[in-house]
Amino acid sequence: MHELSVALSMIEGIADSAARDGFERVLAVHVRVGALSGIAPEALRFSWKLASAGTLAEDSTLNIEDVPLVVFCERCGSERKPRPASGLICPECATACPIIVRGRDLQLVAVEVPE
Amino acid sequence: MKYRVVSIEQNILRKNDALAQGLRARFAASGTLVVNLLSSPGSGKTTLLQETLARLSRRRRVGALVGDQATDNDARRLAASGAPVKQITTAAECRLDADMIGRALDGWEPGRLDALFIENVGNLICPAEYDLGEDLRIVLFSVTEGEDKPLKYPLAFNTAQLALITKIDIADAVGFDRDAANASIRHVNPGVSILETSARTGAGMDEWIAFVETLIDRKTAAREVSVR
Asked: What is the pTM of this model?
């Protein structure tokens, strides 16, 4: 539900990069969104249109890489993907795995800009 | 069109994280324990806090910031305790963030506080993502909510140091399954402390208050060491 403020923070991050890396327009944006980030990709797409209007990223394509939840299972000694809505339970041995390896990501990865 | 790729690789919430670190330094300097309360709407955050402020303010300087999308009803309820309280109205936003806390503190002079309680917006998803510079994050979970709630909202329960089960006085009436609830909490956070409370009957409140006071003493002592 805070997708609009996330989209506005992305614009800020892109504007900082524009000043640093010397570009004035953005064609596409790549973000990474974890399953536990609380962000709904469709709501982020909708918010992106609103937040980018009138900025250097207007009409840019938003590419969202979904990152699944991955935990570290201490009993199995390896990384596991819990089943949906099973919390942080190892799907192999049913142990609770509080160590979240991936899935909290909310990352501005890169932009594509005109040559 | 020919294009080039510019790598950015940064956390989108990095600004919040930086502001939260600033708040943490500010609270360390004043020796103020900060407690962030998360729960769904209706779990009893305000009732717990009313009772907590009333009990603690006999011996300690405590205050509260209260986040809601609309109304200042909760702040008015809490102010009845006599403790300094300020409402943060978030409008469209579903959670408090570090910037809102910073701005609320700037216009507020409650004096030095031993403890500041932050009642977040009732929501178990978004607030879990936002660091407010707190020392202690607690998640409230009432006996009417369904024992599998921690499995549905793992991050809120995973990032908390204490889970408070509230409204324990009506547990039998609503068929609350204590073992199932504890098991789901432990599934997402095996090491978390769990306390059963009822702000209405006072059950578990002495333990809760003692827990907070231990942390207040620790925080005050840390400040005294750094001042010296």
From this structure: 0.92
